[in-house]
Amino acid sequence: QNRNGITFNAELARKSIHISNLVIPFSIYLFSPSKVIPFLLFFMVFCISMDSLRINSTYFKNIYNHFFGFMTRNKENVVFTGATNVLIGATIVTIFFNKSAIIPSLVVMSISDTLAAIVGIKYGSITTVNQKTLEGTFSFFSSCFIILFLFELGFATSLIISIITTMSELFISNKYIDDNLFIPIIVATLITLLFKLSFLYPLYLLLLPLASIPFIIHFLKNKNTKPIQFSSLKFLKIIEREKVNKVKLVEILLLIVRTLIIITIILMITRPIISFNESIKLNSNGTSYSAIIID
């Protein structure tokens, strides 16, 4: 069993269902989001209702476990399953964002999350944050970047969105919010915000991998720690679990701040600009004015 309490074969079965969620962006591509929303709402309400019955009723829990118990993670015994969170996230994204942001975000959620889980469980050897592995995180980042780049979002935009989404997937614990819920929302939001973003010196974006230096130092520092054996522990002060968790939280926050400082410096060098194609309307009769400023 892996850290989620299920076998690798069960994880493969689980991710085969997860990858089938590609039917949602494919349907939105063939039809309009407005035509897909009623179906998403129906299945979302249905799954929420079934999960609520499963959590609160022993009878429905036994029926569920008979068919799907082998692929259900430990934490999902008392919370919504990944399938329900997928439908909630897909419904929110489809309602509040346009088609150009909906489809890439749902594809990233289906493919990148699947690759990260399989690679992390099968080949992961370096544990990072929230019991994630470096191999799984790299799989998520690389697949996310390739997907966004294939959707013609541009190298710079794809790279920035991939870095921010990967950091979110790494640091946001599934104990508080499921990644199937927040990943498509984060990707769709970033696509919407960065769609008109460009850079005067995009070549400096190749320096963005330097943002991983704080991670490397942090992991190498923890890896080199050596346990010290004591003949007796009765003279050691008992450290409360809350204090230990507080120290870990401070370390994670410092790691995030150091990484963001490096990213900010690199982005300042690239000189980002936002392009607006529409003219600014200055009066109510529809007349527009354009100005050309030569620097």
User: Between the first and last Cα atoms, what is the distance in angstroms?
Assistant: 63 Å
Report low-confidence residues grouped into runs of 5 or more.
278-284
**How many β strands by DSSP?**
4
Query: For the residues shown, what is the average pLDDT?
Result: 81
Radius of gyration: 23 Å
What share of the residues does DSSP label as strand, in percent? under 5%
Helix content: 55-70%
**Strand neighbour order, sheet with most strands:** 1-2
Which secondary-structure class do the elements indicate? Answer: mainly alpha
Shape: globular
Q: Number of DSSP helices?
A: 11
Secondary-structure element string: HHHHHHHHHEHHEEE
Can you walk me through this structure?
The protein has 295 residues and is mainly α. The protein has helices at residues 8-19, 23-30, 33-56, 58-68, 82-96, 99-123, 134-150, 155-171, 179-194, 213-223, 241-270, and strands at 197-199, 272-274, 280-281, 288-289. Strands 1-2 form a two-stranded antiparallel sheet. A two-stranded antiparallel ribbon has the order 3-4. Strand 3 (280-281) and strand 4 (288-289) form a beta hairpin. The longest helix is centred in the last third of the chain and has 30 residues, at 241-270. The termini are far apart.
Which labels suit this protein?
two-stranded antiparallel ribbon, 11 helices, mainly alpha, two-stranded antiparallel sheet, 3% strand, 63% helix, 295 residues
